């Protein structure tokens, strides 16, 4: 009788372990998908910000260029055109960031760094471990309970 119960309990335990493993995998997949969606949303916001900034900077650049050109022609001072050059570089960068291939070049460079310069990606003091996080949590909770008294 005990053998049959033991065998039944082992089968139930094995089923429960498989169920827990399956649930863990599902939770991990959902977490990865959620994090990826958050990353995509952040990138979309950054690109949208670049496009919005480009509208304002483009207007400023156009007005400044027209104003500096008119001023240089009226006063016959070509030196007044000098600010157009650095402003043009900034405008070109913003245009590339908002509508160009900058993001693809950055992604390619990031992949290159991850492949060939892995040591640059190491975190100071290494990757946090459960023990280090738990130690910090306990220190903070004991400090909080001490302050509450």
From TrEMBL:
<dbReference type="GO" id="GO:0010756">
    <property type="term" value="P:positive regulation of plasminogen activation"/>
</dbReference>
<dbReference type="Pfam" id="PF10166">
    <property type="entry name" value="DUF2368"/>
</dbReference>
<dbReference type="InterPro" id="IPR019319">
    <property type="entry name" value="Plg-R(KT)"/>
</dbReference>
<keyword id="KW-0675">Receptor</keyword>
<protein>
    <submittedName>
        <fullName>Plasminogen receptor (KT)</fullName>
    </submittedName>
</protein>
<keyword id="KW-1133">Transmembrane helix</keyword>
<keyword id="KW-0472">Membrane</keyword>
<dbReference type="GO" id="GO:0005886">
    <property type="term" value="C:plasma membrane"/>
</dbReference>
<feature type="transmembrane region" description="Helical">
    <location>
        <begin position="82"/>
        <end position="104"/>
    </location>
</feature>
<keyword id="KW-0812">Transmembrane</keyword>
């Amino acid at each position: 009788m005990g053998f049959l119960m033991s065998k039944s309990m082992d089968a139930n335990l094995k089923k429960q372990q498989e169920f827990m493993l399956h649930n863990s995998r599902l939770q991990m997949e959902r977490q990865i998908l959620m994090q990826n969606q958050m990353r995509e949303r952040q990138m979309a916001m950054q690109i949208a910000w670049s496009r919005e900034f480009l509208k304002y900077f483009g207007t400023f650049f156009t007005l400044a260029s027209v104003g500096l050109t008119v001023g240089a022609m009226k006063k016959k001072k070509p030196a007044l055109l000098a600010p157009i050059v650095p402003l043009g570089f900034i405008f070109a960068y913003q245009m590339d960031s908002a509508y160009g291939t900058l993001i693809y070049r950055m992604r390619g460079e990031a992949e290159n760094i991850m492949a060939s310069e892995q040591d640059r990606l190491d975190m100071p003091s290494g990757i946090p471990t459960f023990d280090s996080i738990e130690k910090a949590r306990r220190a903070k909770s004991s400090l909080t309970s001490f302050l509450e008294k």
